[in-house]
Predict the structure.
Amino acid sequence: MNKKSVLSIKNLNKIYSKNSFKSSNNVHALKNLNLDVKEGEIFGLLGPNGAGKTTFINILSGITTKTSGEVNVWGFDLDDNPRQVRASIGIVPQEVNLDPFFSPRKLLELQAGMYGVKKKDRITDAVLKLVSLEKESNSYARSLSGGMKRRLLVAKALVHQPPILFLDEPTAGVDVELRKNLWDNVKMLNKLGVTIILTTHYLEEAEKMCNRIGIVNNGSLVALDSTQNLLNRIQTKKVVFKINSPINLKNDSLKSLKIIYNNKDEVCVSYEKNTLTMNELIEIFNKEKIKIIDISSYDADLEDVFINITKS
């Protein structure tokens, strides 16, 4: 069954005018961006610094006004129903920006009030429990650990029960254990039915977490596909052979074969999977009567894909 689009972007443009008299000085932050995010998926939005990701988030949150294009969130058009669009999205910012003298409970109550949630409809206790902050609910925010503060940002984004959660670089500058805890929280929210959209510089995270990935560069969407299909785009495979004696191996001994290094007991090569097989490669060693002690192979990761796409 095809899931519905919860975020639909059509020909979205944002132009920042530096000088109204010289259009050449304008900055085209987003260029005809087209994007659809499906209900219930974890979608990764990647791109180098200055690619347009923050501008895109700011348009959705109402901080920035789009120049042209259509934005539809959870069935609401941004031009016709801006309040409903903002109510449909919870945004977890990259920066930890909390009033140090307010408790988590007070901060969540204030946030709910700003979204117009009536007192009888507030879910403060449930959200605090969801992010494991119920024991710290009445402590000053300044006394919370870094991990607790990050979880409190997630809680603030959930007080109005949005169906879509936008995470902007949620693990930037945090340690490995905290990162794992945050992703466990995100996976749990996703299982509860929340659609997750995240930006991250940690490509390994995106590779593990995301069903689909969009890559933005210079304001344009340059790639959009399932994570696996993006990985399949890069055909280069790297292999390390541990051997019992040296071998005289040259570039292009077989089609697309490249020697990365060749030591007396170890050889590292790369080749294109669509032109050469591992068996053909092993046969070279067999012909030379070289014994292979161990083989380690490495397929492309998302970093390879990212570099390849943004450079081209």
Q: What stands out?
A: The chain has ten helices and 14 strands. The domain at 5-88+162-231 is CATH 3.40.50.300 (Rossmann fold). The radius of gyration is 25 Å.
